[in-house]
Every structure is written in structure tokens, then in C-alpha cells.
Amino acid sequence: MRNSTFLNFLFLLIYKHKSKHIAISLISILIVFLISSVLFISSSIQKELFQTLDAQSDFVIQRMNQGKIVNTPNSWIEDFSSINGIKNIQQRVYGQYYFEPSNKYFTIVGVDLFEEAVNENIKKLLSQMNISSFLEKDSMIIGNGVRKVLDELYYSDTYSFKLYNRESKKVSIFKDLPKSSNLIANDLIIMDISLAKQILNINEDESTDIILNVPNDLERSNIKVELILKHLDIRVIQKEDIKKAYENLYNYKGGIFLILFIIVMITFVLILYQRYTMVSSSDKKEIGILKAVGWSIKDIIKLKISETFIVALLAFLIGIIFAYIFVFILNAPFLNNIFLGFNNMENSVILSANISFSNIVTLFIFFIIPFISAVLIPVWKIAVIDASESMK
Questions:
Q1: pLDDT tens-place string over residues 163-215
Q2: What is the pLDDT of residue 1?
Q3: First CA to last CA across the chain, in angstroms?
């Protein structure tokens, strides 16, 4: 019964002080909304990227000349195949093509459609199309960003690539990549490996680099050394190194927002503290009446902290809900460009929901503790005042 009376009085008090809580709640919602949006975007993009990287080969071997990447001889595939523990070794062809009319760059990827060890993502795409009709003529599959650029200049069915010998190569547009792949394939063009070599000016007996898998994790460090000993003018990149690079990139961008959040939160706490230290006479009388009817200092502090906690919790939940709608339903317009970048071409991605419960809890703790702390000290100062003096 006593708890029921306390809760009734608590919610009546919140309703009575609603005008005092509105401004603080709005600021709280905005702070939680911004930092939650950043966390949601960062975690969603990282999830998509890491899923893509998981489908990549374990090692990438590039040939270096004076610190620059040059084409790799395909004869090296035989050299590396002799190392025990290596599986699915193959050539890889890709490169940038400058689209002069729009001052954009397309990424061309050559795929050997009859190679068994094709990337899992590309293999999934190829399983949904008729390979024989794709190979009937020079064809390509394009990303949505490429489609948008080509449509602006009315290249709806074909495009003629300019070759290094000043000739042109007409290629038909076979189909578009799904929009769900925009994060990694927005500027991508997939075509047969021989056609890609012709457009990128790569000799038939060369490739951009060589990729391979090492099923046994324990052998990877030793195999990396053996690869380098085979040819000293190479650079060996492990899939784990690429993952770490992406993690550092997004942790850096997220860290910038975290620093801004801390600065804003400190400022907000100072405003809260100042707001609650400037106690009105009605607040003093209210506490004085409570003490006069038998409320202890502990009960008063419990009441005020409960009032503050409910206000803060509601603001936090509303901020989280708004952030979820903004990121995963509206696809975070404007804000996602900070993480994706759009120096080459603008990317319109579909962000999939990836919410870490531990991140939400951590954010709540960082938000609620300073919020309540800013109120606790001023309330305690009022509560210890004599009841008769408070009601003067």
C-alpha cells in the first residue's frame, strides 16, 4: 500500500512539474538521438563489410616495383601452388576506369565464370543468371551508382569503353546489381575476365594480383613467410589485416562523435546542475511540507531521484526509437555520408538493423549517471533544510 501511494504521488509530482521537465527532456532526446544514430550506422556498416570480407580469400599477393603495385605474372600461381596448405589459388583482375563525361571512376572486376573458387558473393549472384546468354556477347553487370551515372547520359543498354590503343569496346548492360549490395558494389562493374583485361590494358598472361586460401589458421603465419621467400618483390595482405584497417577507420570516426558526446554531456550536466541549484520558493515549500508530514531526508531524496530517473528514462527511450527510425527506416540521410564518403559518387545504401544490447546499456549508463548526479546534490541541500525555514 505504501509503495502504491509513493508511486501515485511520484507521477502526480511529474505531471505537476511537466513544464520544468520539457526543455530538459528535449535536449536529452536530441543528445541520445545523435549518439545512437552514429552507433547504429557504424555497427550496421561494419556488419555488412565484415560479412563481405568473410567471403574474401585469406591472402592477397601483390607485386611491387619501387613501392608501386604492378601487374602480377600468372606463372606465379604455379610457384605458390607448390606450398603445402594452400587451396583455391587463382588470379584476380580489377581496376579503375575513368568515366570522363561525369568525372567519375568505375571499378571494373573481371570474373572467370568457369572458375570453381569464385568469391562467394559473386557466386551467389551468378547462380541467379543465365551464364550462356551473358557470354553470347560482351556483357557487364553494373552497380546502382554506375547505372545512375550512365542513365544521366542515356547509356541505357550499352556503353563503349575507350581502350589504351584509342579504339573502343562496346559492352552491353546485362543486368543491375541488387540495391542491397550498394555498400560495396555501388561503383562496381562485373564482366568476363578476358574482357576486363582488354579494357584495363592487362596482358593475358598477367593479372592484378593473386588470391588464395589457407584453411588451417595455424599455418597462415608460416605460409606468409614461405610466400615472401618465393618472390621478394611482393606484398602479402591477410584478410585479418583488412578487417583491422576497417575497424580502426570506423572506430576513429565513431570516436570523434564519442568525444563530441562527452563534451555535450558535460555541458548538459553543468546546465542541469545550475538549473536544480536555482531552487524556487515553491520547490522549497513543497519539500518543507513533505518533511512536516513525516517524510525523512532519505524519502525526499528517493522521491526526487525517482522523478529524475523516470524523466531521463523516457527521454532515453524516445531518443533510441527516433534513432532507430532515422537510421533503419529512413536510411540516415546526410549522416550516413560521413561514414560512407561520396568523393567519387554518392552512395544510397540500405542499412540493415544491427543493434548491440551491450552498446545500448553502456550508452544508458553514461547518460543516466551524470543526469542523476547533477540533481542529487542540489536536492540533498534542500532536503537538509529545516521544514519551518523551507516554508517561509
A1: 988 889 999 999 888 877 777 788 899 999 999 999 999 999 999 999 999 99
A2: 41
A3: 32
